[in-house]
Write a structure and sequence with these properties.
alpha/beta; Arc Repressor Mutant, subunit A; 6-stranded mixed sheet; 5-stranded mixed sheet; 14 helices; 15 strands; disordered N terminus; disordered C terminus; binds zinc ion
Protein backbone atom coordinates (compact mmCIF):
# COMPACT_ATOMS: atom_id res chain seq x y z
CA UNK A 1 0.00 0.00 0.00
CA UNK A 2 3.00 2.26 0.31
CA UNK A 3 3.04 5.05 -2.19
CA UNK A 4 -0.59 4.60 -3.25
CA UNK A 5 -2.24 6.94 -0.77
CA UNK A 6 -1.43 10.06 1.18
CA UNK A 7 0.19 9.22 4.48
CA UNK A 8 -1.99 9.66 7.51
CA UNK A 9 -0.37 12.62 9.22
CA UNK A 10 -2.69 12.28 12.21
CA UNK A 11 -1.65 8.67 12.73
CA UNK A 12 2.01 9.61 12.40
CA UNK A 13 1.65 12.31 15.05
CA UNK A 14 -0.14 9.88 17.32
CA UNK A 15 2.77 7.46 17.01
CA UNK A 16 5.20 10.25 17.81
CA UNK A 17 3.31 10.93 21.03
CA UNK A 18 3.25 7.23 21.94
CA UNK A 19 6.98 7.03 21.32
CA UNK A 20 7.74 10.07 23.46
CA UNK A 21 5.72 8.61 26.34
CA UNK A 22 7.10 5.09 26.15
CA UNK A 23 10.69 6.33 26.01
CA UNK A 24 10.20 8.35 29.20
CA UNK A 25 10.77 5.80 31.98
CA UNK A 26 9.56 8.22 34.67
CA UNK A 27 6.50 9.35 32.79
CA UNK A 28 6.13 12.62 30.94
CA UNK A 29 3.88 15.69 30.93
CA UNK A 30 1.90 16.93 27.94
CA UNK A 31 4.08 20.04 27.74
CA UNK A 32 7.26 17.95 27.64
CA UNK A 33 5.67 15.63 25.06
CA UNK A 34 4.94 18.66 22.89
CA UNK A 35 8.52 19.85 23.26
CA UNK A 36 10.02 16.46 22.37
CA UNK A 37 7.73 15.78 19.42
CA UNK A 38 7.68 19.28 17.97
CA UNK A 39 3.86 19.15 17.95
CA UNK A 40 1.71 21.97 19.29
CA UNK A 41 0.37 21.62 22.82
CA UNK A 42 -3.13 21.69 21.42
CA UNK A 43 -2.36 18.81 19.05
CA UNK A 44 -0.75 16.82 21.86
CA UNK A 45 -3.75 17.45 24.09
CA UNK A 46 -6.16 16.08 21.47
CA UNK A 47 -4.00 13.05 20.76
CA UNK A 48 -3.49 12.30 24.45
CA UNK A 49 -7.23 12.45 25.09
CA UNK A 50 -7.80 9.94 22.30
CA UNK A 51 -5.05 7.60 23.57
CA UNK A 52 -6.45 7.79 27.11
CA UNK A 53 -9.87 6.84 25.74
CA UNK A 54 -8.32 3.93 23.89
CA UNK A 55 -6.60 2.74 27.06
CA UNK A 56 -3.14 2.99 25.52
CA UNK A 57 -2.06 5.76 27.89
CA UNK A 58 -2.96 6.46 31.48
CA UNK A 59 -2.40 9.35 33.88
CA UNK A 60 -0.24 8.77 36.92
CA UNK A 61 -0.64 11.64 39.37
CA UNK A 62 1.00 14.96 38.80
CA UNK A 63 4.28 16.60 39.51
CA UNK A 64 5.48 20.12 39.74
CA UNK A 65 8.05 21.24 37.23
CA UNK A 66 9.18 24.48 38.87
CA UNK A 67 7.01 27.43 37.94
CA UNK A 68 3.36 27.08 37.11
CA UNK A 69 0.82 24.53 38.25
CA UNK A 70 1.80 20.85 38.57
CA UNK A 71 1.39 18.86 35.38
CA UNK A 72 -0.25 15.48 34.92
CA UNK A 73 2.15 12.60 34.33
CA UNK A 74 1.44 10.32 31.36
CA UNK A 75 2.48 6.69 31.05
CA UNK A 76 1.77 3.93 28.56
CA UNK A 77 -0.41 1.03 29.65
CA UNK A 78 1.94 -1.84 28.75
CA UNK A 79 -0.77 -4.48 28.59
CA UNK A 80 -2.99 -2.45 26.24
CA UNK A 81 -1.16 -3.88 23.22
CA UNK A 82 0.33 -7.34 23.06
CA UNK A 83 2.21 -9.26 20.41
CA UNK A 84 3.39 -12.82 20.00
CA UNK A 85 6.97 -13.61 19.03
CA UNK A 86 8.25 -16.91 17.65
CA UNK A 87 11.96 -17.67 17.44
CA UNK A 88 13.03 -20.53 15.19
CA UNK A 89 16.16 -21.07 17.25
CA UNK A 90 18.07 -24.11 15.91
CA UNK A 91 18.16 -25.57 19.44
CA UNK A 92 14.52 -24.97 20.39
CA UNK A 93 11.50 -22.93 19.39
CA UNK A 94 10.56 -20.13 21.77
CA UNK A 95 7.09 -18.57 21.69
CA UNK A 96 6.41 -15.54 23.88
CA UNK A 97 3.57 -13.11 24.51
CA UNK A 98 4.97 -9.65 25.24
CA UNK A 99 3.50 -6.31 26.17
CA UNK A 100 4.36 -2.78 25.04
CA UNK A 101 7.36 -2.69 27.37
CA UNK A 102 8.55 -5.92 25.68
CA UNK A 103 8.07 -7.74 28.97
CA UNK A 104 7.18 -11.40 28.39
CA UNK A 105 3.74 -12.07 29.94
CA UNK A 106 3.85 -15.79 29.12
CA UNK A 107 6.00 -18.15 27.10
CA UNK A 108 6.28 -21.66 25.72
CA UNK A 109 9.53 -23.43 24.90
CA UNK A 110 9.05 -26.28 22.46
CA UNK A 111 11.35 -28.74 20.72
CA UNK A 112 13.77 -27.58 18.04
CA UNK A 113 12.76 -27.24 14.38
CA UNK A 114 12.84 -30.61 12.60
CA UNK A 115 12.95 -31.79 9.01
CA UNK A 116 9.18 -31.61 8.95
CA UNK A 117 8.28 -27.88 8.90
CA UNK A 118 4.54 -28.54 8.60
CA UNK A 119 4.49 -30.43 11.87
CA UNK A 120 6.72 -27.78 13.42
CA UNK A 121 4.29 -25.06 12.35
CA UNK A 122 1.41 -27.06 13.80
CA UNK A 123 3.26 -27.24 17.12
CA UNK A 124 3.93 -23.48 17.01
CA UNK A 125 0.24 -22.89 16.27
CA UNK A 126 -0.72 -24.94 19.32
CA UNK A 127 1.70 -23.01 21.52
CA UNK A 128 0.21 -19.73 20.28
CA UNK A 129 -3.32 -20.96 21.00
CA UNK A 130 -2.30 -21.95 24.49
CA UNK A 131 -0.73 -18.51 25.10
CA UNK A 132 -3.94 -16.83 23.95
CA UNK A 133 -5.98 -18.96 26.32
CA UNK A 134 -3.64 -18.07 29.15
CA UNK A 135 -3.92 -14.39 28.27
CA UNK A 136 -7.72 -14.46 28.28
CA UNK A 137 -7.88 -16.41 31.53
CA UNK A 138 -5.55 -13.90 33.18
CA UNK A 139 -7.59 -10.97 31.93
CA UNK A 140 -10.79 -12.48 33.26
CA UNK A 141 -9.14 -13.11 36.63
CA UNK A 142 -7.82 -9.56 36.85
CA UNK A 143 -11.17 -8.18 35.85
CA UNK A 144 -12.90 -10.19 38.57
CA UNK A 145 -10.37 -8.92 41.12
CA UNK A 146 -11.16 -5.36 40.01
CA UNK A 147 -7.57 -4.60 39.12
CA UNK A 148 -6.88 -1.50 37.11
CA UNK A 149 -6.28 -3.25 33.83
CA UNK A 150 -6.66 -1.91 30.35
CA UNK A 151 -10.06 -3.56 30.30
CA UNK A 152 -11.23 -1.43 33.21
CA UNK A 153 -9.42 1.72 32.19
CA UNK A 154 -10.43 1.87 28.57
CA UNK A 155 -13.36 -0.50 28.47
CA UNK A 156 -11.55 -2.40 25.76
CA UNK A 157 -9.62 -5.66 25.78
CA UNK A 158 -5.93 -5.51 24.92
CA UNK A 159 -5.21 -5.75 21.25
CA UNK A 160 -3.15 -8.67 20.04
CA UNK A 161 -1.25 -7.11 17.17
CA UNK A 162 0.03 -10.27 15.52
CA UNK A 163 2.72 -12.91 15.34
CA UNK A 164 6.33 -11.98 14.60
CA UNK A 165 8.67 -14.75 13.48
CA UNK A 166 12.46 -14.58 13.84
CA UNK A 167 14.60 -17.03 11.89
CA UNK A 168 18.24 -17.47 11.09
CA UNK A 169 19.09 -16.29 7.55
CA UNK A 170 18.54 -16.90 4.65
CA UNK A 171 15.02 -15.84 4.53
CA UNK A 172 12.88 -13.68 2.30
CA UNK A 173 11.20 -11.29 4.73
CA UNK A 174 9.24 -9.51 2.01
CA UNK A 175 7.50 -12.71 0.88
CA UNK A 176 7.51 -14.21 4.36
CA UNK A 177 9.46 -17.29 3.32
CA UNK A 178 12.18 -19.20 5.14
CA UNK A 179 14.40 -19.96 2.15
CA UNK A 180 17.54 -21.91 3.03
CA UNK A 181 19.02 -21.19 6.45
CA UNK A 182 22.08 -23.40 7.02
CA UNK A 183 21.03 -23.57 10.68
CA UNK A 184 17.57 -25.00 9.83
CA UNK A 185 18.45 -27.80 7.40
CA UNK A 186 14.88 -29.12 7.32
CA UNK A 187 13.31 -25.79 6.37
CA UNK A 188 13.53 -25.09 2.65
CA UNK A 189 11.22 -22.57 0.95
CA UNK A 190 8.67 -22.64 3.76
CA UNK A 191 5.94 -19.97 3.53
CA UNK A 192 5.88 -19.60 7.28
CA UNK A 193 4.07 -16.23 7.33
CA UNK A 194 1.14 -17.52 5.25
CA UNK A 195 0.93 -20.80 7.11
CA UNK A 196 1.03 -19.35 10.63
CA UNK A 197 -1.29 -16.53 9.70
CA UNK A 198 -3.84 -18.98 8.30
CA UNK A 199 -3.55 -21.22 11.31
CA UNK A 200 -3.90 -18.47 13.94
CA UNK A 201 -6.06 -15.93 12.13
CA UNK A 202 -3.49 -13.31 13.09
CA UNK A 203 -1.28 -11.17 10.87
CA UNK A 204 2.31 -12.41 10.76
CA UNK A 205 5.70 -11.05 9.74
CA UNK A 206 9.15 -12.58 9.35
CA UNK A 207 12.61 -11.17 10.01
CA UNK A 208 16.12 -12.42 10.59
CA UNK A 209 16.72 -13.19 14.24
CA UNK A 210 19.58 -10.71 14.47
CA UNK A 211 17.38 -7.96 13.02
CA UNK A 212 14.53 -8.85 15.35
CA UNK A 213 16.87 -8.78 18.33
CA UNK A 214 18.25 -5.36 17.45
CA UNK A 215 14.72 -4.03 16.89
CA UNK A 216 13.86 -5.08 20.44
CA UNK A 217 17.06 -3.61 21.86
CA UNK A 218 16.31 -0.23 20.33
CA UNK A 219 12.57 -0.17 21.09
CA UNK A 220 12.72 1.41 24.52
CA UNK A 221 16.12 3.00 24.25
CA UNK A 222 16.61 6.74 23.87
CA UNK A 223 18.69 6.91 20.69
CA UNK A 224 21.37 9.38 19.76
CA UNK A 225 20.32 11.24 16.65
CA UNK A 226 22.25 10.02 13.63
CA UNK A 227 24.10 7.36 15.59
CA UNK A 228 24.81 3.80 14.54
CA UNK A 229 24.03 0.86 16.84
CA UNK A 230 25.62 -2.49 16.14
CA UNK A 231 24.47 -5.80 17.50
CA UNK A 232 26.49 -8.98 17.97
CA UNK A 233 24.32 -12.05 18.28
CA UNK A 234 25.74 -15.05 20.14
CA UNK A 235 23.68 -18.14 19.43
CA UNK A 236 24.27 -21.47 17.75
CA UNK A 237 25.97 -19.37 15.12
CA UNK A 238 27.29 -15.86 15.24
CA UNK A 239 25.54 -12.95 13.56
CA UNK A 240 25.40 -9.20 13.56
CA UNK A 241 22.98 -6.42 12.77
CA UNK A 242 23.36 -2.71 12.42
CA UNK A 243 21.02 0.26 12.59
CA UNK A 244 21.84 3.76 11.50
CA UNK A 245 19.73 6.68 12.67
CA UNK A 246 17.19 4.18 13.87
CA UNK A 247 16.90 2.28 10.59
CA UNK A 248 18.11 -1.29 10.23
CA UNK A 249 20.53 -2.03 7.41
CA UNK A 250 19.20 -4.97 5.43
CA UNK A 251 21.68 -5.00 2.59
CA UNK A 252 20.88 -7.66 0.05
CA UNK A 253 19.36 -9.96 2.67
CA UNK A 254 22.53 -11.58 3.97
CA UNK A 255 24.05 -8.54 5.66
CA UNK A 256 25.43 -9.33 9.08
CA UNK A 257 26.42 -12.93 8.34
CA UNK A 258 29.88 -12.52 9.82
CA UNK A 259 30.77 -16.15 10.55
CA UNK A 260 33.65 -16.04 8.09
CA UNK A 261 35.15 -12.79 9.30
CA UNK A 262 38.89 -13.35 9.69
CA UNK A 263 40.03 -13.17 13.31
CA UNK A 264 43.76 -13.67 13.00
CA UNK A 265 43.45 -16.28 15.72
CA UNK A 266 44.91 -19.75 15.19
CA UNK A 267 45.23 -21.65 11.93
CA UNK A 268 42.22 -23.92 12.03
CA UNK A 269 40.82 -24.46 8.54
CA UNK A 270 37.23 -23.36 7.95
CA UNK A 271 34.66 -24.95 5.65
CA UNK A 272 35.21 -21.94 3.37
CA UNK A 273 38.82 -22.99 2.86
CA UNK A 274 40.40 -20.14 4.79
CA UNK A 275 41.92 -20.16 8.23
CA UNK A 276 40.85 -18.60 11.50
CA UNK A 277 37.27 -17.62 10.59
CA UNK A 278 35.14 -16.24 13.44
CA UNK A 279 32.66 -19.15 13.50
CA UNK A 280 35.47 -21.62 14.27
CA UNK A 281 35.76 -20.08 17.73
CA UNK A 282 32.27 -18.80 18.48
CA UNK A 283 29.75 -21.40 17.29
CA UNK A 284 28.32 -23.05 20.38
CA UNK A 285 28.96 -26.60 19.22
CA UNK A 286 32.60 -25.81 18.48
CA UNK A 287 33.07 -24.34 21.95
CA UNK A 288 31.58 -27.53 23.35
CA UNK A 289 33.88 -29.61 21.12
CA UNK A 290 36.91 -27.69 22.39
CA UNK A 291 35.79 -28.36 25.96
CA UNK A 292 35.49 -32.08 25.25
CA UNK A 293 39.00 -32.12 23.80
CA UNK A 294 40.21 -30.34 26.93
CA UNK A 295 38.81 -33.20 29.01
CA UNK A 296 35.79 -31.36 30.41
CA UNK A 297 32.99 -33.92 30.79
CA UNK A 298 30.35 -32.36 28.56
CA UNK A 299 28.01 -34.92 27.10
CA UNK A 300 26.69 -35.13 23.62
CA UNK A 301 23.25 -35.85 22.34
CA UNK A 302 19.88 -35.69 23.97
CA UNK A 303 21.11 -36.16 27.51
CA UNK A 304 22.41 -32.65 27.77
CA UNK A 305 21.51 -29.93 25.30
CA UNK A 306 23.81 -27.25 23.90
CA UNK A 307 22.61 -24.77 26.49
CA UNK A 308 23.25 -27.10 29.42
CA UNK A 309 26.70 -28.05 28.11
CA UNK A 310 27.66 -24.39 27.76
CA UNK A 311 26.34 -23.73 31.25
CA UNK A 312 28.52 -26.51 32.59
CA UNK A 313 31.65 -25.11 30.92
CA UNK A 314 30.87 -21.57 32.07
CA UNK A 315 30.15 -22.57 35.65
CA UNK A 316 33.44 -24.46 35.80
CA UNK A 317 35.27 -21.45 34.40
CA UNK A 318 33.57 -19.16 36.89
CA UNK A 319 34.57 -21.56 39.69
CA UNK A 320 38.22 -21.21 38.67
CA UNK A 321 38.76 -24.34 36.56
CA UNK A 322 41.72 -23.29 34.35
CA UNK A 323 40.83 -25.74 31.55
CA UNK A 324 37.29 -24.37 31.27
CA UNK A 325 38.55 -20.79 31.49
CA UNK A 326 41.02 -21.50 28.67
CA UNK A 327 38.23 -22.97 26.52
CA UNK A 328 36.22 -19.73 26.84
CA UNK A 329 39.20 -17.48 26.19
CA UNK A 330 39.18 -18.19 22.45
CA UNK A 331 35.53 -17.22 21.86
CA UNK A 332 36.18 -14.12 23.96
CA UNK A 333 39.14 -13.11 21.82
CA UNK A 334 37.30 -13.95 18.60
CA UNK A 335 34.24 -11.92 19.66
CA UNK A 336 36.54 -9.05 20.57
CA UNK A 337 38.04 -9.13 17.11
CA UNK A 338 34.54 -9.09 15.59
CA UNK A 339 33.56 -6.17 17.81
CA UNK A 340 36.68 -4.35 16.70
CA UNK A 341 35.75 -4.92 13.05
CA UNK A 342 32.22 -3.59 13.62
CA UNK A 343 33.60 -0.51 15.36
CA UNK A 344 36.06 0.15 12.55
CA UNK A 345 33.42 -0.38 9.87
CA UNK A 346 30.56 1.63 11.36
CA UNK A 347 31.95 3.85 14.14
CA UNK A 348 28.87 3.01 16.22
CA UNK A 349 27.76 4.72 19.43
CA UNK A 350 27.29 1.27 20.96
CA UNK A 351 27.91 -2.36 20.20
CA UNK A 352 25.23 -4.37 21.97
CA UNK A 353 25.98 -8.04 22.60
CA UNK A 354 23.19 -10.51 23.22
CA UNK A 355 21.57 -13.68 21.95
CA UNK A 356 20.44 -17.00 23.42
CA UNK A 357 23.85 -18.00 24.82
CA UNK A 358 25.45 -14.66 25.62
CA UNK A 359 24.33 -14.51 29.27
CA UNK A 360 25.86 -17.97 29.82
CA UNK A 361 29.35 -17.14 28.57
CA UNK A 362 29.40 -13.41 29.27
CA UNK A 363 31.25 -13.47 32.58
CA UNK A 364 34.09 -15.68 31.31
CA UNK A 365 34.49 -14.17 27.87
CA UNK A 366 34.03 -10.45 28.45
CA UNK A 367 37.55 -9.68 29.77
CA UNK A 368 39.11 -11.36 26.72
CA UNK A 369 36.59 -9.69 24.44
CA UNK A 370 37.36 -6.25 25.85
CA UNK A 371 41.09 -6.76 25.66
CA UNK A 372 40.96 -8.04 22.08
CA UNK A 373 38.69 -5.20 20.95
CA UNK A 374 40.98 -2.67 22.59
CA UNK A 375 44.31 -4.15 21.56
CA UNK A 376 43.29 -4.46 17.94
CA UNK A 377 42.48 -0.77 17.64
CA UNK A 378 45.09 1.20 15.78
CA UNK A 379 45.86 4.83 16.54
CA UNK A 380 43.16 7.15 15.28
CA UNK A 381 40.46 4.50 15.02
CA UNK A 382 36.97 4.74 16.40
CA UNK A 383 35.85 3.87 19.90
CA UNK A 384 32.48 2.72 21.16
CA UNK A 385 30.64 1.52 24.21
CA UNK A 386 30.23 -2.24 24.45
CA UNK A 387 27.04 -3.07 26.31
CA UNK A 388 25.32 -6.31 27.23
CA UNK A 389 21.74 -6.91 26.17
CA UNK A 390 19.27 -6.81 29.04
CA UNK A 391 16.64 -8.84 27.21
CA UNK A 392 17.97 -12.26 28.23
CA UNK A 393 18.12 -15.55 26.34
CA UNK A 394 14.72 -15.07 24.68
CA UNK A 395 15.76 -11.93 22.82
CA UNK A 396 15.01 -13.65 19.49
CA UNK A 397 11.37 -14.29 20.38
CA UNK A 398 10.97 -10.94 22.15
CA UNK A 399 12.51 -9.32 19.09
CA UNK A 400 10.06 -11.13 16.84
CA UNK A 401 7.16 -9.70 18.84
CA UNK A 402 8.75 -6.26 18.78
CA UNK A 403 8.51 -6.30 14.98
CA UNK A 404 4.78 -5.77 15.36
CA UNK A 405 5.15 -3.06 18.00
CA UNK A 406 7.55 -1.35 15.63
CA UNK A 407 5.35 -1.75 12.59
CA UNK A 408 2.10 -0.65 14.20
CA UNK A 409 3.16 1.84 16.85
CA UNK A 410 6.41 3.50 15.80
CA UNK A 411 6.38 6.61 13.65
CA UNK A 412 7.52 5.95 10.12
CA UNK A 413 8.68 8.01 7.22
CA UNK A 414 6.10 10.57 6.09
CA UNK A 415 7.14 11.01 2.50
CA UNK A 416 5.53 8.18 0.49
CA UNK A 417 7.72 8.92 -2.53
CA UNK A 418 10.98 8.55 -0.63
CA UNK A 419 12.93 5.66 -2.15
CA UNK A 420 13.36 2.73 0.13
CA UNK A 421 17.03 1.94 -0.11
CA UNK A 422 16.70 -1.25 1.78
CA UNK A 423 14.23 -2.93 -0.43
CA UNK A 424 14.63 -2.78 -4.16
CA UNK A 425 11.87 -5.35 -4.53
CA UNK A 426 9.16 -2.79 -4.41
CA UNK A 427 5.67 -2.22 -3.29
CA UNK A 428 5.16 -5.11 -0.89
CA UNK A 429 7.81 -3.83 1.44
CA UNK A 430 5.26 -3.07 4.16
CA UNK A 431 5.83 -6.63 5.31
CA UNK A 432 9.50 -5.98 5.94
CA UNK A 433 10.08 -4.12 9.14
CA UNK A 434 12.99 -1.84 9.23
CA UNK A 435 12.13 1.39 10.93
CA UNK A 436 13.12 1.41 14.55
CA UNK A 437 13.22 5.04 15.66
CA UNK A 438 12.24 8.57 14.72
CA UNK A 439 13.11 9.18 11.12
CA UNK A 440 15.78 11.73 10.37
CA UNK A 441 14.15 15.07 9.92
CA UNK A 442 10.83 13.88 11.29
CA UNK A 443 9.15 16.25 13.70
CA UNK A 444 10.04 14.01 16.61
CA UNK A 445 13.70 13.78 15.90
CA UNK A 446 14.88 17.10 17.16
CA UNK A 447 15.61 16.41 20.82
CA UNK A 448 19.10 17.56 21.61
CA UNK A 449 21.95 15.11 21.88
CA UNK A 450 22.80 16.38 25.34
CA UNK A 451 19.33 15.63 26.57
CA UNK A 452 19.40 12.15 25.05
CA UNK A 453 22.83 11.47 26.49
CA UNK A 454 21.53 12.24 29.93
CA UNK A 455 18.70 9.82 29.62
CA UNK A 456 20.93 7.04 28.33
CA UNK A 457 22.06 6.44 31.86
CA UNK A 458 18.50 5.56 32.83
CA UNK A 459 18.36 2.65 30.40
CA UNK A 460 18.65 -0.53 32.44
CA UNK A 461 21.51 -1.84 30.36
CA UNK A 462 24.79 -2.97 31.83
CA UNK A 463 27.57 -0.92 30.34
CA UNK A 464 30.45 -3.33 30.50
CA UNK A 465 33.12 -1.44 28.71
CA UNK A 466 34.15 1.54 26.72
CA UNK A 467 36.76 0.55 24.22
CA UNK A 468 39.24 3.32 23.86
CA UNK A 469 42.55 3.33 22.16
CA UNK A 470 43.97 6.06 24.33
CA UNK A 471 42.89 5.12 27.82
CA UNK A 472 43.27 1.98 29.79
CA UNK A 473 39.92 2.47 31.45
CA UNK A 474 38.38 -0.58 29.82
CA UNK A 475 41.03 -2.89 31.20
CA UNK A 476 39.46 -5.60 33.32
ZN1 LIG B 1 35.33 -19.44 6.83
Amino acid sequence: MRGTSMPDVGEYNEKLVIQAVRRAPDGISQAETARRTGLSRQAVSLIVRRLLDQGLLRTDGSRSGGRGKPSTVLRVVPESRLAIGVHLDPSRIAVVLVDLDLQPRARRLIAAPTRDPETDIARIGEAIESLRHEMHAELRAEHVKGRDTAVDAGGEAPQLLGVGIASPGGIDPVRGIVVDPPWLPGWRHVAVVDQLSRRTGLPAILAKDTHAALTAELWGRPLHRGATYDYLYVGDGIGSASAEDGTLRHGGGRAGEIGHLPTGIGDAVCSCGRRGCLNLYTDARRVIGAAREAGIPVEEGEERGVREQLELIASRANDGDPAAAAVLELPGRALGSAVRALIDLHDPAQVIIGGPYWHIVEESTIPHLQRAARDASAPGTAQAQIVSSNLGPHVGAIGAASLFMERDLAPRRLDPTAPDQDDPRGADSEQATHVVAPEPGGPGAHASTAEISNSVSTVPTVVTSTVSRASGSAAP
